[in-house]
Amino acid sequence: MAGRLTRACTSLRVPAAELLDALCALAGRPAPPFGPHPVRRVHGQVLQAVGSLPLGVLQPGDVSAAMDVRAGLLNAEVPAQADAAALCIRRTVDNLGPAELWELARGTAVTRGDLMRGAAATLAEGRPVNGDLLDELAAHILAEEVTERSPCQWGRQHADAVRAALYRSLADLADALLEVSESTPTPLDWTGDDTSGRFATPVIGGVTYGVLVQPTETATSAAEPVWHHPSLSATHTAWQWRIASGPPDPASHGCGPFPSALAARHAAECAITALAAGRCDL
After folding, report:
1. How far apart are CA 97 and CA 99, in angstroms?
2. Residues 4-35 pLDDT 10s
3. Are the beta carbons of 215 and 237 closer than 8 angstroms?
4. Which residues make Cβ contacts (< 8 Å) with residue 176, sequence separation at least 6?
5. Cα dist. 45→22, 31, 147, 281 in Å?
6. What's the chain look like in SS3?
7. If 0-12 CB within 10 Å is exposed, 13-18 middle and 19+ buried, where does residue 257 land?
8. Torsion of CA 41, 44, 49, 53, to 10 degrees
9. pLDDT in tens, 272-282
10. In this structure, is the dihedral angle defined by the CA atoms of residues 246, 252, 257 and 259, taken in order, positive or negative?
11. Secondary structure of 37-95 in the HEC alphabet?
């Protein structure tokens, strides 16, 4: 049986050399520079750790949930394999100094929402967060201090807040690999592009369906990168898919938002698989 990395390449229809870039798109993150770049090295370590996990025992979101449990932000039981992956990510990030943390945070386009969550996890220090206004204000102040200071001026809590934000962003990448390695999308013959949208017309059981993937909205301020990333535009577009059937019984269904056109196309192809198998309807 093929391993997770091979299955992910098949699911996304990309060669192994392009898998990391595709998974970053699914997770809504920019791809790291090619070559021996430290951001690509850390991403590769995460994928190798998750790629070795057995198939059929984890669900998308398990690694992020395990990370939240370790941070004290969630009280839940998580699979041991997901907790092991979360621990591997933490150890990888914990070995980085402030300058390396900043480079990784900028390279993965850590958002203001990520940083706020990281600040909350740092201030929690193992105790459950009550979610009251004082907690939110303290996390906001800590996050703002991180953005206003250079890495050499960070204190312990500032660096820990960035670490916690990176834990979660890398866990999102791990969960993207879990999702595509377990999925069975139906390859569609798309027309159009990833700027204005794409369209496909699969035939299932003699019925022709129209599948549309299109931009739907721009990201909120919480989804904006904290530090400028050279490959990202000033506004980030979210995407959605919509599937419609023709006569005699027209129906339609849509889903979104997704962080990239690739993520929306992949989700639409998985929805077509479920539709053809009778696991859902419009």
Report:
1. 6
2. 999 999 999 999 999 999 999 999 899 998 88
3. yes
4. 23, 26, 27, 60
5. 16, 15, 27, 39
6. CCCHHHHHHHHHCCCHHHHHHHHHHHHCCCCCCCCCCHHHHHHHHHHHHHHCCCCCCCCCCHHHHHHHHHHCCCCCCCCHHHHHHHHHHHHHHHCCCHHHHHHHHHHCCCEHHHHHHHHHHHHHCCCCCCCCHHHHHHHHHHHHHHHHCCHHHCCHHHHHHHHHHHHHHHHHHHHHHHHHHHCCCCCCCCEEECCCEEEECCEECCEEEEEEEEEEEECCHHHCECCCCCCCCCCCEEEEEEEEECCCCCEEEEEEEECCHHHHHHHHHHHHHHHHCCCCCC
7. middle
8. 180
9. 999 999 888 87
10. negative
11. CHHHHHHHHHHHHHHCCCCCCCCCCHHHHHHHHHHCCCCCCCCHHHHHHHHHHHHHHHC
Q: How far apart are CA 259 and CA 239, in angstroms?
A: 6
Would you say how long the chain is, in residues? 282
pLDDT digits (tens, 9 = 90+) for 46-90: 999 999 999 989 999 999 999 989 888 888 999 999 999 999 999
CA distance 231 to 131: 35
How far apart are alpha carbons 121 and 184 in whole angstroms?
35
In the block, tokens 């299955």 appear at 7
Give the span between the Cα atoms of 244 and 211, in whole angstroms. Answer: 7
CB 219 within 8 A of CB 204: no
Separation between Cα atoms, residue 21 and residue 32, nearest integer Å: 8
